[in-house]
Amino acid sequence: MSEPATLGEFFAGAGRGTLAALRCGGCGELSLPPREFCPACGARAWQPTPLGGEGEIVSFTIIRVPPAPLAGTAPYAVAVVRLREGVSLLGRVVDIPLDRLAVGLPVRFRPLTLQGQTAIGFGPA
């Protein structure tokens, strides 16, 4: 059995510009975020699988009243993005005017650093 990747490893890779999910060696289910057991078959035989980072917005919201630490950055948008590989990620939208956001808009992963921590971002494809 292989050990599952951790969220720390996921975000460390994202900070270097790469995204990866885990693929179950038992049934082939793709999992993101990392977890200990496969939700489809219960196996614990994970294999890291690179993700291309391209996808489309399936939902978004515009944050106008952010938490206090992000007060100077509003308004900004966060979106749920379905990647081509079939898994979804939540990330901040960058380099796209807020009035151009739409469900179905193609986007691409962009690593972000917010307050010294790696975050997931999505910009124009």
Q: Helical element count?
A: 1
Strand content: 35-45%
Q: What is the gyration radius calculated from CA atoms?
A: 16 Å
Largest sheet: 5 strands, mixed, barrel
CATH domain fold name of the largest domain = OB fold (Dihydrolipoamide Acetyltransferase, E2P)
Low-confidence stretches: none
CATH class of the largest domain: Mainly Beta
Which secondary-structure class do the elements indicate?
mainly beta
* CATH architectural label of the largest domain: Beta Barrel
Write down how many β-strands occur, each being a DSSP E stretch of 2 or more residues.
Answer: 8
The count of domains is 2
Task: Write out the strand line-up for the largest beta sheet, numbering strands in chain order.
Answer: 4-5-6-8-7
Helix percentage: under 10%
Write structural notes for this entry.
The protein is mainly beta and 125 residues long. It folds into two domains: 7-51; 54-124, OB fold (Dihydrolipoamide Acetyltransferase, E2P) (Beta Barrel). The protein is built from one helix and eight strands, in the order H-E-E-E-E-E-E-E-E. A five-stranded mixed β-barrel has the order 4-5-6-8-7. Strands 2-1-3 form a three-stranded antiparallel β-sheet, covered by helices on one side. Strand 7 (106-114) and strand 8 (117-124) form a beta hairpin. The relative contact order is 0.19.
